[in-house]
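Hi L.,

You mentioned the student needs an example of a multi-chain input paired with its predicted structure. This one should do, with 748 residues in total across all chains.
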Amino acid sequence: MTEPVVEAETDAEEDPPDAGVHQAIEPPTFDAPTRPALETLSRDQRELLQSWLAGFADRADLLRWCHEATVATLGQLPPEWHRDRLMSLSELTTLVVVDEQRRRWLDEDALLDPDRAREWRLAVASTDLVPACQTALRRIRWSAVEYTNDADDDNPAFVDVEDQDEPAMRPGLGETATRQRWVVDRGLEGFDSRDEIVETWLPYAIHASFGELDEDLASAFWSEQPLREMFVERDDRAAKFYRESFLALEFLPAFNRAVEQLADRAGEAVSGGETTDHSPTTYPSR
Amino acid sequence: MSQALNSAFSAVTTESEVRDQLATVFDFHEKSAQAHGDATLNRHNDGQDMYKRLGFAPFHEYLALTERQGKNVATYPSAWVTPLVHLKGREIDLVEELVGEVEYDPQDPHPSHEALEDFPRPRAKALEWIADDEGDRTAWKSQGNRTIDAWTAGGTDYFAYGKPGSGKSTLMTFTAAVLQQVNNETVLLADTLDDSGTNERAEWLALAPWTTIAIPDGIPVEVRIVPEAAELSPFTIDVEEICRDVVRYTSPVDLLEQLVEGQFYVVFPDPLHRGCEDVSRFAYHGPDRVTPVGESGPSAPTPADQWWFAFVQARIKRDVFPHWTSILFDEAGNLFDPDAEKDEHDEYDKIRKFAKDFADARKKGVSVFSYAHALSEVSHFFRAKQRWWVTMNGATPPVGKSLPGDKSCPVPTTRYSQQMESGEALVWNTSNYASINWPNVKRGARLDAEVSIDFDLEAVGL
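Structure written out for the whole complex:
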């Protein structure tokens, strides 16, 4: 364990208004935490919180964050939470920090100034986000494997948390999150034909949702001309807004349930060191 | 099965065929300075011949390859390069001065700076590789930020542990060949004698063309060849026929006086311990001092292996032979027994003293490489002074455990060692680690017989 270091407070006035992400205090760190899965989850949650407080570039950015939030909270935010964020214009203007984007949704004089907006994000974080993170941690606190260095242990363990890139060290969750991430990104982009949706995107999304997706979605894409139009034919600003909304309403809640279901039963595994190749070089012959 | 295949897989069936095989295995290298018994001759050293004849690349080419592939061997040279490439203080200064002055090119056999031209070629190229460092090699947890910062002058060590069959004897042979190649080191393989006087291990046979066997003077010895084919009966040959040279010594100091720089020795300890008490303050009992059980005094002679404690004392206390000297201890658990007792042979004190003198030994250019089945097989006194460890295939590094001497293993996870195959190992010191590979130097000429060296111990009262 290293000694906690309390950094001197830097000149707060000189910082940009949304620089609340900088940490003035530093908690102690552990080289080999006994329950590295909790450490990994907690680390991801801190990052989630920081990017929330920093604000977002546009609505699609917020949508992607909402998906990351379902993963890092292990599905513990209520399904409608994301919808409430994404579908309320006044809410949106407090979350998105790029002025050009904000002015599209509200009149200039109705916009909160940046400091007030950040205050609002801090309020939402305290009432919703932090409690959801806590519930998530409680969900896995006893299933998180304890790695201790018993002197009699032939296989002593040490887990480098920096190497852990799966959510809560659960590869099953990581795989699902990666699938879902692709579904969201691909959906935001739009498609060249209806076939792409029905043949590839939706079946993949069904798998990514752990079977939680609405069963009528495929037939909706087949039969509902306006829906198809927004996803296939049009790529204007309104179509993008529509796709973001559709993903928020139909996909995020299903993905949220998928993560919640998986979190309880996904097995833990240590990963890492992938950046370094530890296979030896074969000694060359003459 | 075809005739040719059949003969390739079955043992030869006549004594003359076995003798032909022996002639090939023991085809001695006669052209080097060491073959002439004089290291000052203007001839190449054995170390410059060994890797060629054994068919592997010089060590610097391996370093260049690992560097191109971004492997730990090159990135953190303190793990595997430092223990093998020995440097004197002024050589460290020289290499430091050459940083930025040399351009290492693995293709060019000549070093790029005249200051390196006085060294034998393989050593010059290794030093050149060390000096040609743009600051990108030693990064993590190393002292300083250039390769050369990882060196302290003098000898080194490593302690390799792993199950039988994990490649310890090929690693041992390879280590001997590399030490001779890059340092022109005098390498002593510490062989053993059991109570019956028989030695059947002969793991050094791959190095037979360059080997000198050192045996205690006055003890009759013969070499028994036991053919694999059941119809052939064993026959004996002279010890001179299985090595390039034989030296007979009467004491540790006498052996030191006969050593040649850059020569490979297989040394059999003296069970009579002649001259041991002259160089050591501990007890060495020959058979003449044994007293009946119940009377005071030792009831058995001191085990022959303990002769090595006296030899190392002689090497560091008497400046008879100052050249780089490496001692390779196979089955180190026998010598550095963790259960050593405070008995009339002073075994416990000998091990403690050996460990205490380890730093002195290094300063005097002595290196000790030892091999055992597990970390726990050797005394913690010995382990506390070790600087390098080699975790062999199938063994586990002591991740997260505290080690004797307030040391710890830097390997972050046991996964790295679990993925190892035969002929691979994880070498580490307290700051860095690297995965290594070495050539299978065991494979040499074919011999369908066992070589057994028999000492007639009864003739000397044992």
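You could point out the following to them. Residues 1-20 of chain A have pLDDT under 50 and may be disordered. Chain A touches chain B at residues 32, 149, 151, 154-160, 163, 270, 272-273, 276-286 (CB under 8 Å).

Best wishes,
N.
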